[in-house]
Specification:
By secondary structure, this protein is an alpha/beta fold. The protein is about 30% helix and about 30% strand. β8 and β9 form a beta hairpin. α2 crosses α3 and α2 crosses α7. The protein is globular. It binds NADP nicotinamide-adenine-dinucleotide phosphate.
């Protein structure tokens, strides 16, 4: 096959077949000239975790494919990362500025900034108007209190996940653990305990007194979860019998595994609440109809943000989140016992391989994959054959 020549006027998109997530393609297209009000950002780097795979798995149902449309049958998975402005026809956004936000798995992207402020802007593209504002917001790195140049990778990898973790912890406490802890013996069960979002949640819960947090994970990840030190107990998925069947408990489900959910709902007659957070076990996802016990309820992070915004005001909420984030980053980046080991994957071949690894889900849970398709970061032409 003939190698394609990549020039500065081309963009590379990583495409995924919507009905077959293992089927991928790298596609090169010529960049269109900008319209008035648009900006072009080079997507410098982005994180890829099971969360992004879940965006793809629920792409149709929850409209994640709607952010960056592609040709019929194909999708561009949204990812969190950093972009720098390389061309601007919007006076409030200058060439050279960097923004944190929700990008496609591409080398560049065209956005249409609206509501610009010192904090950043929103993408006003028509096709994104009906999508949730939290995903349409781009934070200006020069003013963003969460930003520091030393921890860019950690931010791309963990910031969106940790905000969810913080909100889950806040939501559970706000609801008094759904009565599970009235006599001080309640148990919180967290599946996919080795995932970054689950361990962020356990990290927050560990700062509260008096409720036991049990991590459930695959046999291969037991030791990693125990090493985190934020679970009172860690069990393999087939060890549910080590928890008393009558225990008052809450299920916080990151795995989305239908069989596991059924086992938990069936075993624990005193299950007080069942919260569906995600679906890391992409091959075992399934509906939650006709289960014993409470209805499995989708956790909707923006609803908790809205509630706290109304109760506390945006400034207080922002300060609390920032303070918690800083504590988490300190813990995660502790060189003596790192919870996260960043791996860089630069260029199309490396991006393709990293995607296959994250999709397969059997990698080292310490790994944090940072990817880049940006032009001069790798010999792109060689990979696009
Ligand atoms: N609702 C929200 O707003 C929200 C926000 C953020 C994240 N989430 C969800 O939280 C979940 C965790 O995301 P993350 O990015 O933190 O994950 P991550 O760190 O990439 O999780 C890795 C872990 O997930 C499990 N896993 C991943 N792929 C798998 C596969 N193909 N088969 C079996 N197990 C697999 C394994 O854990 P075990 O061996 O421990 O099972 C693995 O160690 C995702 O489903 C995500 O959608 C939801």
């Amino acid at each position: 096959m003939q190698a394609l020549f990549i020039c500065a006027m081309n963009t590379i998109d990583f495409l995924v077949r919507k009905d077959q997530l293992a089927s991928t393609e790298l596609r090169e297209t010529t960049e269109c000239p900008l319209a008035e009000g648009q900006v072009r950002l080079r997507v410098e780097k982005f994180a890829l975790t099971a969360n992004n795979i879940t965006y793809a798995a629920f792409g149709e149902a929850m409209n994640y494919w709607g952010f960056y449309p592609a040709e019929p049958g194909w999708g561009r998975i949204p990812v969190w990362g950093f972009g720098s402005v390389v061309e601007s026809r919007q006076s409030a956004v200058s060439v050279g500025e960097e923004f944190y936000g929700y990008y496609p798995m591409s080398s560049s992207v065209v956005l249409q900034p609206v509501r610009p402020s010192p904090a950043g802007f929103f993408d006003g593209a028509e096709h994104r108007a009906a999508l949730h504002a939290v995903y349409n917001n781009y934070a200006r790195c020069s003013t963003d209190p969460f930003y520091s140049p030393q921890t860019e990778d950690v931010q791309a990898l963990l910031r969106p996940l940790f905000i969810t973790s913080w909100l889950i912890d806040d939501f559970l406490a706000d609801n008094n653990f759904f009565g599970a802890n009235e006599d001080g013996t309640g148990v919180l069960l967290l599946s996919s305990a080795s995932s970054k979002t689950a361990y962020g949640t356990a990290f927050q819960l560990a700062q509260r007194k008096g409720i036991e947090v049990v991590g459930l994970t695959s046999a291969a990840n037991l030791e990693f979860c125990r090493s985190l030190g934020c679970y009172h107990q860690v069990l393999a998925y087939d060890q549910l019998d080590q928890i008393a069947a009558g225990a008052a408990c809450v299920y916080v489900d990151f795995a989305g595994n239908a069989d596991l959910r059924r086992s938990i709902h069936t075993r624990f007659a005193n299950l007080k609440y069942s919260s569906s957070i995600g679906g890391t076990h992409v091959e075992q996802l399934g509906g939650a109809k006709d289960l014993p016990g409470p209805r499995a309820t989708l956790f909707f992070a923006p609803a908790q943000i809205k509630k706290r915004n109304a109760e506390w005001g945006a400034d207080i909420l922002g300060q609390r989140l920032l303070q918690a984030w800083q504590g988490f980053v300190e813990k995660v980046c502790n060189p003596a016992a790192p919870w996260l080991v960043v791996q860089h994957h630069v260029g199309p071949d490396a991006v393709r391989a990293a995607y296959a690894e994250v999709l397969g889900g059997r990698g080292d849970p310490r790994a944090g994959h940072m990817l880049s398709l940006a032009p001069n970061s790798a010999p792109l032409a060689a990979a696009l054959t």
